[in-house]
């Protein structure tokens, strides 16, 4: 990261009390950033963060992305914004799709419009692989967030707010996810509940997710979507790797696929890959900046999409069980759990 990028800047993080906010703060507090604004709904989480960090550069704003006034209030005077506020639990979005729509779509629209009106330099919106070819309300609303961001970006000129998105895969050990669940099950001596042994997910550490956000911020052109190339594993291999690390002999029980989940995730579609730039560890997907006058594009013709494959957790690098063990061992949370149970 280039610390100069944050020197003297005022930074806003929406949804800043979540795991992204905590980790991102650790990184930018090391720079000469002028001010960091944490915007979120939950005063208790803000208070705990304030007591833990005791850093006068951090200001706390209570608000909700659904309320434009509260976003406007927090964004006044901001240079850079990172939009992490979202409803991201698949099951709750499934049961309350209108709530997902209000926060993830209407709320994101508020953030985008407010950023443009206040002429901030750059806005990065956090999305997910579940937004690609979505099957659940969480993914659908995140996909719409990307569309809202890009539709706004398309209207902007050079020198105006730069708007970009990043897509995560599964962030390992994130709250409510399968890794802490499996560890807990082992601690209780219960079977590991595997949905479908062959189901695959892209695996990303929280630190790599932060690096992706920083990369996007540093390299974004108007309307870009960035993804980080990532390996994947099957859930069966993930369960086995955890059993090996924790020297656990609990059985693996197959419970079947849950509501609204896919056998594999897609990070970028074939169509997007045709508009993508390979940047080493990252891919930049350019915004489709065609205007509504489609006829001229048909006569010019489009390259053959059939020749390219989607980039999915089924066809990316597949980690072996020992490789998953190594990756798990690099996570501070897993190291802590192993120490607690006396395995390290
Ligand atoms: O008891 C379980 C729970 C999950 N899984 C499997 O483990 C994998 C990962 O499951 P997670 O619940 O950790 O992750 P998801 O891919 O379902 O989605 C997660 O990441 C999303 C963001 O991309 C959202 O935050 C979502 O709420 C969060 O659960 C999936 O294949 C799932 O089927 C099991 O085998 N057994």
TrEMBL record:
<dbReference type="Pfam" id="PF02719">
    <property type="entry name" value="Polysacc_synt_2"/>
</dbReference>
<comment type="similarity">
    <text>Belongs to the polysaccharide synthase family.</text>
</comment>
<dbReference type="InterPro" id="IPR051203">
    <property type="entry name" value="Polysaccharide_Synthase-Rel"/>
</dbReference>
<dbReference type="InterPro" id="IPR036291">
    <property type="entry name" value="NAD(P)-bd_dom_sf"/>
</dbReference>
<protein>
    <recommendedName>
        <fullName>UDP-glucose 4-epimerase</fullName>
        <ecNumber>5.1.3.2</ecNumber>
    </recommendedName>
</protein>
<dbReference type="GO" id="GO:0003978">
    <property type="term" value="F:UDP-glucose 4-epimerase activity"/>
</dbReference>
<keyword id="KW-0413">Isomerase</keyword>
<feature type="domain" description="Polysaccharide biosynthesis protein CapD-like">
    <location>
        <begin position="11"/>
        <end position="285"/>
    </location>
</feature>
<dbReference type="InterPro" id="IPR003869">
    <property type="entry name" value="Polysac_CapD-like"/>
</dbReference>
<dbReference type="InterPro" id="IPR013692">
    <property type="entry name" value="CapD_C"/>
</dbReference>
<dbReference type="GO" id="GO:0009103">
    <property type="term" value="P:lipopolysaccharide biosynthetic process"/>
</dbReference>
<feature type="domain" description="UDP-glucose 4-epimerase CapD C-terminal">
    <location>
        <begin position="288"/>
        <end position="335"/>
    </location>
</feature>
<dbReference type="Pfam" id="PF08485">
    <property type="entry name" value="Polysacc_syn_2C"/>
</dbReference>
<keyword id="KW-0448">Lipopolysaccharide biosynthesis</keyword>
